[in-house]
Amino acid sequence: MISLWPSPGRRRFSELSEKEVLALAISSEDDDSRIYADYADHLRKDFPDTARIFDAMSKQEAQHRDNLTAEFQRRFGAHVPLIRRENIAGFYRRRPVWYVCNLGIERIRREIGLLEDESANFYLQAAKRATDPGTRALLETLYGNELQHEEIAGELAQRFLPSEKKSVEDNKARRQFILTWVQPGLAGLMDGSVSTLAPIFATAFATQSSHTTLLVGLAAAVGAGISMGFTEAVHDDGVISGRGSPIKRGIASGTMTALGGLGHALPYLIPDFWTATVIAISVVFVELWAIAFIQNRFMETPFWRSVLQVVLGGALVLAAGIFIGAG
Fold first, then answer.
1. What's the rounded Cα separation, in Å, for the pair 258 and 226?
2. DSSP string, 92-139
């Protein structure tokens, strides 16, 4: 998309000359070549077949850059001015490779598709706005090249990543996602939801004060979240176990632990004690069923076995808290 109003220090695309448009295309193709190379380097160890696709795409983008450079030098001379995407108002922006790589293999594949779609759309919109026939023809050619990139990417995928290899990579990525995010997050949610039941509801029935129960609940949830997060992060660096980044696992475990406890603590924001308690108990059973669902969905635990383990265990802890508080 091309913005109607340039940001400070940026120019409108319509203000660029043919020479500047061609220079912009050269820098863009160079950037995209390096982006593909970065993805390939990141994926080479765990997903070598996908990395080969990105290697080939990087070489093709580099060839397009060289062809554009030769055309520029034929028409305008040896010096190519440096004009980059960030210099142009509304020009499409690539997401940082380090950011996308943290989101998994499927997200990377989708990002590459978006990358080519955005490039093609930019050149198409730019061609519509161009008034000079030569510039329009150039932009239309670039638009056609970007469409060809998508076809080439598909051909490379069929050559380097047939369905059986893609299935292996997808299974590996799913397993890594479960080990790094789902498993510690589920452990945190179970700990936060179950371990805080007794102190929260013991306080609730002992004091019958929404305010006091809220304070105890907040302290229990936040304290448990911090404890679980640090424990998960420091007890395994992930190198031998293959469970991935300890920081990511710590974030997943700590966040879900805190959320598990906050779920049945926050209803005590309601001043009326019994209304808050009824809602809190209802939230507890929603949390326990959610844990059973996640276990069934990602850990392949039979659903009713999960229900028996989690819901029954949670109900016993809840009953213990109420009994102790009411005693």
1. 8
2. --PPPHHHHHTT-HHHHHHHHHHHHHHHHHHHHHHHHH--SHHHHHHH
What is each CA distance from 154 to 12, 159, 182, 270, in whole angstroms?
A: 34, 9, 31, 56
Report field, pTM of the whole predicted structure over 0.85:
no
Residue corresponding to tokens 């001043």: 271
Helix (H/G/I), strand (E/B), else coil: 165: helix
Please give the pLDDT value at position 310: 76
**CA-to-CA distance for 248 and 179, rounded, in angstroms?**
10
Rounded to whole angstroms, the Cα distance separating 163 from 169 reads 10
- pLDDT tens per residue across span 206-239: 999 999 999 999 999 999 889 888 887 776 666 5
pLDDT score, position 156 = 46
Residue of 31, 6, 174 lying closest to 87 (CA atoms):
6
Tokens of 319: 């009953």
Rounded to whole angstroms, how far apart are CA atoms 309 and 302? 11
CB 269 within 8 A of CB 214: yes
**Burial of 174 (C-beta count, 10 Å sphere; 0-12/13-18/19+):** middle
C-alpha to C-alpha distance for 194 and 314, rounded to whole angstroms = 6
d(CA 111, CA 298): 25
Residue listed under structure tokens 């326990």: 288
According to DSSP, residue 159 is labeled H
Query: Taking 60 as the threshold, does the pLDDT of residue 96 lie above it?
Result: yes
User: Cα separations (Å) of 299 from 177, 188, 253?
Assistant: 12, 15, 16
Give, in degrees to the nearest 5, the angle at Cα 220 between 216 and 222: 115
**pLDDT of 66-90, one tens digit each?**
988 887 888 889 999 998 888 887 6
Q: Are 104 and 173 in contact (CB under 8 A)?
A: yes
